[in-house]
Amino acid sequence: MCAIFQLLHVSSGFYQILPVHYLRSCDQTWFGSFWVQFLIFTLLLIFAIISDVLPSILDIFTFGDLRDIECVESLGPNSKLSNLLNLFCFGTYGDHKNPSFPPLSAAQLRKLRQLTIISACEYRHHIPYDVLLKSLELTSLRELEDLIIDLIYADAIVGKLDQQKRMLVVESAIARDFKQEDLPKLKMDLDSWSDRVNSSLEKLASNVTRATTLRAEWAENRVRVSSNQNNVNFRMQQEDNRMDVDSNMDVDDQLEIYLDDNGEPLLLPRPSTSTSVSGEKGRRNPLRALQKGRKGGK
To answer: Does residue 3 lie within any of the structural domains?
Structure first.
């Protein structure tokens, strides 16, 4: 039997969507007619989208595979079902007011709000609550935080809620579907990103080369400074040794200062020692010279 019946199945009362690429492997021997496939898939698509099965599944945020199926493409651009599918693929919350779309249920509006938050995370990493409340037409901060928390648990957004600053801090987010006409812009963005990466790699290589050169110069200067310091320490040690030797030497002919009668200083050489015949050392008495001077003055 054609795998198209596996699009929806019931498991413990919960509807789940199987991978859509199974649809491309339908058994053509049983469903050989294009119109049979078209009718069945149209009915299932109506059931999936209109009956809130598709929007109610938390971890499905891309619907481009449905658009690539031949029978969906044959619906035409003016079909409300095709427009509704395009709304979930590319649209945001404000787009649903267009009369070309059928009325949306509460589950579909909730899914569309979540898709709008994902689109806002594409170009901004810090999104104020006020911006999200305005774009989603919400007044309850609690409802906004519940939408974001569900996206975080579904791994659609990696980030955190900064309640003090009233903003959503985004590290990364999943990508939504993109149109074929957006491919040139996507290529331009990828080329720009590649250029920035190459520029960063060149700067990094230049910094590594410069750091290696500076490290070699630093090592050379360190060796030179260490050698100079050793030479200075050696010379200072030699100077200290020479000063120690000089301090231990006796200085001869040390002068002693005396005053005459007028208070004038008399510079007399230090009397030399002499050894008497008896072996005793004698020293001239400088007072005798002064007394002789007095007598001569008289």
So the answer is: yes
Last residue of a domain, one of 177, 200, 232: 177
pLDDT of residue 56: 55
> Quick one: how many helices (H) and strands (E) in the chain?
10, 9
Report the distance separating Cα 132 and Cα 154, nearest Å. 19
In a domain, 28, yes or no: yes
Q: How many CB atoms lie within 10 A of CB 59?
A: 11
- Residue range 228-242, pLDDT digits in tens: 888 888 788 877 777
Amino acid at 155: D
Band of the pLDDT at 26, cuts 50, 70, 90? very low
**247 belongs to a structural domain:** no
Can you name the residues that pair with 255 across neighbouring β-strands? 269
Residue 138: give the domain boundaries: 109-177
State mean pLDDT over 184-211. Answer: 92
3-state secondary structure of 292: helix
Rounded distance between C-alpha atoms, residue 283 and residue 199, angstroms: 95
